[in-house]
Design brief:
With 498 residues, the chain is mostly beta strands. Among the domains are: 87 residues, Immunoglobulin-like, CATH 2.60.40; 81 residues, no CATH class. It is 4% helix and 37% strand. The radius of gyration is 55 Å and the shape is rod-shaped.
Length: 498
């Protein structure tokens, strides 16, 4: 009996931790930490699941987060499953495989201080296969300690016993010989306790003894024809398409790492009944990412039933577009867009305001002032103010017509220098003392008395030889021979006008 090895290929080399794309960071971190700790092939953390069948070997689906989590305990040591070793026969090829389970996988096998008498025995470190041809009988069996170490450096050992006997007179033992890249089956006969050479017969049809090395064809073949490993009617599989699987009534080479019809094995087809998904196979594990504009939002959902172009799930399961008061919302390319009906505008806090709203006149930041004694309005995006009767609009304020500084109009100051001024019903009444005239200058109003430039009235100017007396222009007295409007004095016998 041949005991098949349960090494990396059958244990966890295809194991994957899966999670939703939007799973919580802590779940992602834990899954990644496990992968790094036990060195299994977790090259894509975050794969989604809805049932245990979506997960790889040694994993289950956590429906709370739709995440495939490993059932492996990275802190546990592997266990050697082989209990006994097949007895060897002197001169006959020996072939036996060790098995292990548990731990982190990625097993490496070694023999611990094997006896010298078993020097003929060779152990393949990665597969656990022991081969060789014994040269002498060994009864009773010799102790043989085997060790397996997983990818997390946890090790286990087991003490076994290997015995070798001589052949029995007349016994016939099957053998195989490779000739010209093909394997032929023969037999060895026991004569006088010694096996004869292999007498070659027909080409092998046994998958376990085939090809140029008379060894197992492996997964690249489905039959042994004429002593050569084959897949269907062609050569055995190799390279990226190294697995031979039944297909189209025959057999063909497929890539079980990426073919969703043969994902991880010949008889493993990824689901075809999930809604709105892209059916894919990644590293031998079925994956069902959502198609464009679809999401897997419900716990335990097998497919992607949520429309991500809807405002309730815009671009992601959790992105809900808020609808502004008095407006509308829509989802555009996964981004929420909000708007208002014609004649209104969207302003903080997510509210549509009419364009003639006093607090949002023409734009969201323009506020129309509301003056006392006036009425504010917004038209065509512009603020306007109408003041009550008896008031004038000055800037943004309604000012009384009786205001001394805005008498009848903005900036019209009601005042007079040297007199009194009172604003009444928009009219400025200015009064000067008796004998003075109220005259307007560029700098304002002044009360003017006997001023030759404004004599008796604001626009009457006396001649150069006249003076203003009691509001009338009179000739200046003669000083010597000339009129003198100043002071006439005599100096050194002459009259001078100062």
């Amino acid at each position: 009996m041949t005991i098949r090895n349960a090494g990396p290929g059958s244990f966890d080399s295809r194991d994957r931790s899966k999670s939703l794309r939007n799973a919580k960071t802590v779940a992602w971190t834990i899954a990644l930490g496990i992968c790094l700790a036990i060195l299994i092939r977790c090259d894509r953390v975050g794969r989604s699941c809805s049932r245990n069948g979506d997960c790889g070997p040694n994993a289950v689906c956590n429906l709370e987060i739709n995440l495939c989590v490993s059932t492996l305990d990275e802190n546990a040591s592997p266990t050697i499953g082989t209990q006994t070793l097949r007895e060897g026969i002197v001169g006959a090829p020996y072939d036996e495989s060790l098995s292990a389970s548990g731990g982190a996988g990625g097993y490496r096998w070694t023999l611990q201080n094997p006896p010298v008498a078993l020097a003929w025995l060779q152990l393949d470190a990665s597969s656990g296969r022991m081969t060789g041809t014994p040269l002498a009988a060994q009864q009773p069996g010799l102790p043989l300690t085997v060790q397996v170490r997983d990818s997390a450096s946890h090790a286990a050992e087991k003490l076994l016993s290997l015995s070798v006997r001589n052949c029995i007179e007349g016994e016939s033992i099957a053998c195989a010989v490779a000739l010209q890249s093909a394997c032929f089956i023969g037999s060895q006969s026991c004569r006088g306790g010694v096996l004869s050479g292999c007498v070659v017969g027909q080409p092998s049809s046994d998958l376990s003894r085939c090809g140029s090395n008379c060894s197992s064809c492996g997964q690249g073949s489905d039959r042994c024809g004429d002593g050569v490993c084959r897949c269907g009617g062609a050569d055995s599989c190799s390279g990226d398409t190294s697995i031979c699987c039944p297909a189209d009534g025959g057999a063909g080479c497929v890539d079980t790492r990426s073919n969703p019809d043969f994902c991880g094995g010949c008889r493993v087809a990824c689901d075809s009944d999930r809604a709105n998904v892209v059916r894919t196979c990644d590293a031998g594990i079925c994956d069902y990412p959502c198609a464009a504009n679809w999401g897997r939002c419900l716990p335990g959902a097998r497919g992607c039933e949520t429309d991500l172009t809807d405002i309730e799930h815009c671009g992601s399961c959790t992105n809900r577009c808020s609808v502004p008061d008095g407006g509308f919302a829509r989802c555009e390319a996964g981004i929420c867009a909000r708007g208002c009906s014609p004649g209104s505008q969207l302003c903080f806090p997510e509210t549509c305001f009419p364009l003639d709203d006093l607090d949002h006149c023409g734009n969201c930041t323009q506020r129309c002032p509301r003056p006392d004694h006036g009425l504010a309005s917004c038209r065509n995006g512009q603020c306007s103010i109408a003041c009550q009767q008896g008031y004038n609009l000055c800037g943004t304020a309604c000012i009384s017509n009786d205001d001394q500084n805005n008498c009848g109009g903005c900036g019209q100051i009601c005042a007079i220098e040297g007199g009194t001024a009172v604003c009444s019903q928009g009219q400025c009444n200015r009064q000067c003392p008796v004998g003075f005239n109220a005259c307007r200058f560029e700098t304002g109003w002044r009360c003017i008395g006997d001023d030759p430039t404004h004599c008796g009235s604001c626009d009457l100017q006396c001649d150069d030889t006249q003076q203003c007396r009691a509001g009338r222009c009179v000739d200046c007295p003669i000083c010597g021979r000339f009129p003198c409007c100043g002071t006439c004095v005599r100096e050194e016998g002459q009259w001078l006008c100062n």
